[in-house]
Amino acid sequence: MATVFERGWKPLSAALDALGVAAFACVFGAINLQVFMRYVANHPVSWSEEFPTLAFAVAVLWAAAVTLRAADHIVFELLTDLLPRKLQLVVAALAYSGVAGIFAVAFPAIADFALYMKVLSSPILRIRYDFVFSFFAFFIGMVALRSAVAGLSSLVWLVRGDPATRSGNGADPCKVQQAPL
Predict the structure, then answer these.
(1) What's the pLDDT band for 2 if we cut at 50, 70, 90?
(2) Taking 50 as the threshold, does the pLDDT of residue 8 lie above it?
């Protein structure tokens, strides 16, 4: 049975996914328009080269920060699978905490750089680069937050005991099956 949080998360998750899909659809539409205008209408439009580049960067960073689950990423578990279960949880907690710490330390400098980029804008559409770079800062912040939550959940599982062995249906933080934040 789904908890209240899980039931409440599904509409928000669907909305966040829809924003990512819409961004990728804009990229696809702009590229198709560019091809049509250049090769069929023989009247290329200049903005159609710049817009897909910026929209693709924004779409990828949005998707990676918000909609992708940790289980969607490629991981190498060759060594950790050989460890005892409790040691797997310790390694997972240390790894997630390390990523969270590195990204949290880098975040202020990245946010400062994103804010600095307000002095520049794209040459054709005049989109300020601080808007584009703010998605990278958002991505860094979300990775830090999600890694901190995953590291804490690994520690909680280590202290309380493994729910997968108690009830048989718990998510495994060592197998990076956490829900997206």
Answers:
(1) very low
(2) yes
8-state DSSP, 40 = I
Same domain, 129 and 55: no
Q: Which two tokens stand for residue 62?
A: 């949005």
Q: What is the enclosing helix (H) or strand (E) of 176?
A: none
Report phi then psi at 121, rounded to 5: -140, 165
Give the three-state DSSP class for 121: strand
| Structural domain count of the chain | 2
3: pLDDT strictly greater than 90: no
- Tell me what pLDDT residue 94 has: 92
Domain end call among 67, 100, 125: 67
Tell me, what's the pLDDT at 102?
97
pLDDT per residue as tens digits for the range 42-90? 998 888 888 998 889 888 888 888 877 777 777 777 788 888 888 888 8
Per the structure block, which two tokens stand in for 79?
A: 């060594």
Q: In this structure, are residues 23 and 59 in contact, taking their beta carbons and an 8 Å threshold? A: yes
Token reading at 46: 């200049």
| Sign of torsion over alpha carbons 28, 29, 30, 32 | positive
Which residue carries 């989109």 as its tokens?
A: 127
Give the whole-angstrom CA distance, residue 92 versus residue 133.
30
CA distances from 119 to 61, 109, 131 (A): 22, 17, 11
Co-location of 77 and 164 in the same domain? yes
85 backbone dihedrals φ, ψ, rounded to 5°: -55, -45
